[in-house]
Design the sequence.
């Protein structure tokens, strides 16, 4: 699937080119793609030096703030203390990892993370698809774009705002509790109820991101050739049969790709969303891998242990994502990596 | 009464393809109800929160919480939070961090994206790889925290900007867009002796306003909405950004020490001081609502480009 990119061919550029064709000799042969290999490194540096200079600030920032910390993970093998620093702290082999894997709280965090991921894949994932199909069936373009603008909006609210809004509506002193109190019921507070917590956070994700999620499906729907529908009608297909035999097959590649990538991302669940609600609902249901790392390291000061836990999560996630990309390939989709690489 | 033919015209509308059957009236009603419910689910919370922030304390007490029917409107809540207390300061911090951060990130990303956009340029594959790796493997919170701390950035506003300044995803969105620009124009300019800086400034940037607007919005919203970096790196609550104040004061109901919100008594239940809390919430949402309409129409182009072309 490809999306057409509107490239306005600038009139001045074309004119310049015409002028060149008329008056000047063609471009120097050294620029022809086939001859690229024969140019010396120095000539290529002279030709592409400006490009390298442009990339430099971003690469420098990534080096300092993404790559140097990767090396900093060395503390996971140390008996690290901030006072001695990672240069002088003694190495202790796999001791921190042993502590991680035998820590019952860590195992709880793994279980909670996977449960939340499962909830979101089952209950969140289909929502944008259904919403996209619904919106696609709205024929008036004005109405459709208006609704689109409204449902995209919550994606741009921070988690603090979203959780606060949910607290004001569903919390113990919130709107719904108030209406229930008027009707004689008391004790309603979804924000602190561990039994319904997973449904609550899934609802929050739906409210925030389901609208935004439809963009990619709407784009896929807009590429469907209308002749297919017309042909299906001629063959006697009704509304639902057209959806089943024309619309859904058109969405299938996107659905498969996004589902695989989501599965590969199973260990990452909304960290900011959960850390905001951890105290209200309790650690038992809300501790996930990322919050575990935060509390063990930054709050309790067991840096090496937390770094080991974070590293385990990072490496398992990496393996899952790469595997997901491989699987996406098998399904005939270019994975994320190859797409960018081209 | 509606005649049969005009009824038919009405239900078919102008946009229905000729081959499609007439809509089923019951189906139309159900669809309309579902759409209204979805729109209401987004807009109702916003409506009642904004209304409450403009309501008087008496109306809030009478409603027992969020106000849904307009009563006496007042600006008291906004006067209180904008009169120089911690919320005022936090708003200024957020505005400053967002402005500086967005400018820095957008410029750095445009340069990087253009620097990798010419096919066959020197080392463009290894450089691209440097960006891609960061999308798949994060160093982790603990080493990043220790680095920021060792750089002496704790309690510095730069700790809210530099660690998240470059997003590989945004760079790749821009790169895809730049690569979609007709090569012949760029080659012609180069043959005419234009440097890469000139080509970027005079040809590529003017043609990429939509993509740049979307990426700048992504960065801007990211900086404005971030609260966890501040929670990690900013200990001094006089330097807190608005989102962190919102979290402590509104979500957790903590009265902030040494702040202008001190005179608000938030301890006796959620009703007292609710207009002020909701005013803080509205303050945190407003910039997004202000910028949104101008950038929103470019979303599909920018996002799809990023998501599908990578």
Sequence:
């Amino acid at each position: 699937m490809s999306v057409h990119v509107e490239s306005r061919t600038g009139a001045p550029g074309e004119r310049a080119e015409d002028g060149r064709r008329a008056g000047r000799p063609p471009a120097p042969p050294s620029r022809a793609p086939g001859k690229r290999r024969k140019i010396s490194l120095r000539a290529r540096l002279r030709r592409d030096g400006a490009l390298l200079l442009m990339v430099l600030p971003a690469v420098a920032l990534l080096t300092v703030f993404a790559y140097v910390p990767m090396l900093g993970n060395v503390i996971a093998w140390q008996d690290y203390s901030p006072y001695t620093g990672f240069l002088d702290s003694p190495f202790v082999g796999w001791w921190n990892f042993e502590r991680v894997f035998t820590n019952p709280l860590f195992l709880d965090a793994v279980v909670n993370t996977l449960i939340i991921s499962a909830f979101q894949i089952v209950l969140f994932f289909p929502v944008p698809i259904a919403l996209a199909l619904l919106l696609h069936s709205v024929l008036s373009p004005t109405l459709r774009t208006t609704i689109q603008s409204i449902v995209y909006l919550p994606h741009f609210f921070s988690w603090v705002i979203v959780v606060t809004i949910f607290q004001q509506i569903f919390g113990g002193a919130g709107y719904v509790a108030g209406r229930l109190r008027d009707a004689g019921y008391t004790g309603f507070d979804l924000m602190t109820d561990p039994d319904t917590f997973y449904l609550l956070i899934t609802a929050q994700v739906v409210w925030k991101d389901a609208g935004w999620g439809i963009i990619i499906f709407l784009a896929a729907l807009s590429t469907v050739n209308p002749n297919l529908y017309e042909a299906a009608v001629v063959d006697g297909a009704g509304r639902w049969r057209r959806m089943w035999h024309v619309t859904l097959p058109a969405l299938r590649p996107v659905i498969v790709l996004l589902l695989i990538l989501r599965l590969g991302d199973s260990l990452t669940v909304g960290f900011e969303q959960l850390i905001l609600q951890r105290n209200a609902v309790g650690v038992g249901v809300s501790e996930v891998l990322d919050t575990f790392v935060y509390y063990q390291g930054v709050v309790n000061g067991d840096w090496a242990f937390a770094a080991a836990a974070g590293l385990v999560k990072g490496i398992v996630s990496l393996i899952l994502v790469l595997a997901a990309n491989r699987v996406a390939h098998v399904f005939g989709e270019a994975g994320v990596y190859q797409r960018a690489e081209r | 009464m509606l005649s049969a033919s005009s009824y038919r015209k009405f239900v078919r509308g102008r946009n229905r393809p000729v081959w499609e059957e007439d809509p089923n009236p019951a189906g139309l009603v159900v669809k309309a109800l579902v759409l209204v419910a979805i729109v209401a689910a987004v807009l109702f919370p916003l409506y009642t929160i904004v209304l409450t922030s403009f309501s008087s304390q008496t109306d809030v007490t009478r409603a027992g919480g969020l106000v849904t029917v307009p009563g006496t409107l007042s600006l008291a809540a906004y006067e209180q939070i904008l009169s120089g207390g911690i919320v005022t300061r936090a708003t200024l911090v957020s505005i400053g961090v967002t402005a500086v951060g967005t400018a820095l990130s957008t410029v750095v990303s445009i340069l990087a994206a253009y620097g990798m956009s010419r096919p066959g340029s020197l080392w463009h594959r290894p450089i691209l790889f440097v960006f891609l790796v960061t999308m798949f493997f994060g160093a982790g919170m603990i080493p990043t925290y220790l680095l920021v701390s060792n750089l002496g950035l704790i309690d510095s506003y730069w700790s809210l900007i530099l660690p998240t300044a470059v997003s590989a995803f945004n760079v790749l969105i821009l790169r895809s867009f730049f690569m979609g620009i007709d090569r012949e124009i760029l080659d012609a300019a180069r043959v005419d002796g234009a440097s890469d800086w000139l080509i970027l400034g005079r040809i590529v940037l003017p043609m990429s306003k939509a993509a740049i607007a979307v990426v700048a919005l992504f960065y801007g919203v990211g900086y404005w909405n971030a609260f966890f970096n501040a929670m990690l790196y900013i200990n001094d609550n006089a330097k807190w950004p608005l989102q962190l104040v919102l979290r402590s004061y509104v979500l957790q109901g903590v009265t902030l020490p040494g702040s202008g919100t001190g005179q608000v008594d938030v301890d006796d239940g959620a009703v007292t001081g609710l207009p002020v809390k909701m005013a803080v919430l509205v303050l945190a949402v407003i910039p997004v609502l202000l910028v949104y309409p101008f950038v929103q129409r470019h979303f599909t182009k920018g996002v799809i480009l990023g998501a599908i072309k990578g």
In short: Chain A touches chain B through 124 residues (CB under 8 Å). The domain at 103-341 of chain A is CATH 1.10.3720.10 (MetI-like fold). The first helix of chain A runs from residue 11 to 23. The mean pLDDT of chain A is 82.
